[in-house]
Amino acid sequence: MPGDDDATTRHFGFFVAGSLVGVASLFVEPLAERSDLGHRLRAMAVLESSQRQGVGTALIKAVIGAASVAGSSYLWCTVRPTAVDFYTRFGFKETQVQIAMAHGSFSTMVVTIPSFPKTLL
Ligand SMILES: CC(C)(COP(=O)(O)OP(=O)(O)OC[C@H]1O[C@@H](n2cnc3c(N)ncnc32)[C@H](O)[C@@H]1OP(=O)(O)O)[C@@H](O)C(=O)NCCC(=O)NCCS
After folding, report:
1. Does residue 45 lie in a domain region?
2. How far, in Å, from the CA of 84 to the mean position of ligand 1?
3. What contacts 24+ positions apart, CB below 8 Å, involve 16-19?
4. pLDDT value at position 101?
5. In the chain, how many domains are there?
6. Is residue 101 lining ligand 1, measured as CB closer than 6 Å?
7. Beta carbons within 8 Å of 19's beta carbon, 6+ residues apart
8. What separation in Å is there between the alpha carbon of 35 and the centre of ligand 1?
9. Residue 82 belongs to what domain range?
10. Is 5 a domain residue?
11. How far is the CA of 51 from the centre of ligand 1 (A)?
């Protein structure tokens, strides 16, 4: 993706016995309508055979922790309808912005970093 190799971009992987089973990437990319520092979460995915075992939770915690350390106020992402409930668990809220993509309409979801339950970090 554009920005993959930027110095501020972070790529996270979850490995089981040396095999990569989950990924997430973190980019410095504020929302157009905001002037404070924000990060964007992209390409979050867990292999189907490793889903529902806590891998996604571990990745979200790592990503939000890194965004927090970088001084970010918020984290946002575009989310397919089937994953909205997953992100809601971590404090993400849907905005009015819907993005039409080839494989359907995605929601834009945002979580304010200080409101993230620190016990989950
Ligand atoms: C969405 C996704 C990243 C979640 O990863 P995961 O490793 O399965 O998540 P976890 O195991 O950490 O799940 C944490 C909790 O969320 C729940 N959960 C997981 N996926 C969910 C979903 N799609 N909708 C609602 N709840 C979900 C789990 O049941 C679990 O609940 P529990 O603690 O009560 O058991 C993963 O299912 C995935 O890669 N899906 C396909 C790609 C995708 O949708 N990516 C998101 C980008 S839009």
Report:
1. yes
2. 9
3. 16/50
4. 81
5. 1
6. no
7. none
8. 31
9. 10-116
10. no
11. 7
105 lines ligand 1 (CB under 6 A): no
Q: Tell me whether strands 74-79 and 93-101 are parallel, antiparallel or unpaired.
A: unpaired
Q: Is the pLDDT of residue 1 over 70?
A: yes
Which residues are registered as beta bridge partners of 93? Answer: 110
The residues, ordered by sequence, that sit 6+ positions from 74 with a Cβ below 8 Å of its Cβ are 31, 34, 36, 38, 39, 110, 111, 112, 113
* Cα 78 from Cα 6, distance rounded (Å): 20
Q: Cα separations (Å) of 18 from 21, 22, 39, 110?
A: 9, 12, 28, 32
The response to whether residue 54 sits with its C-beta less than 6 Å from ligand 1 reads: yes
Per-residue model confidence as pLDDT tens digits over 98-111: 888 887 889 999 99
CATH code assigned at 29: 3.40.630.30
Establish if 3 belongs to a structural domain: no
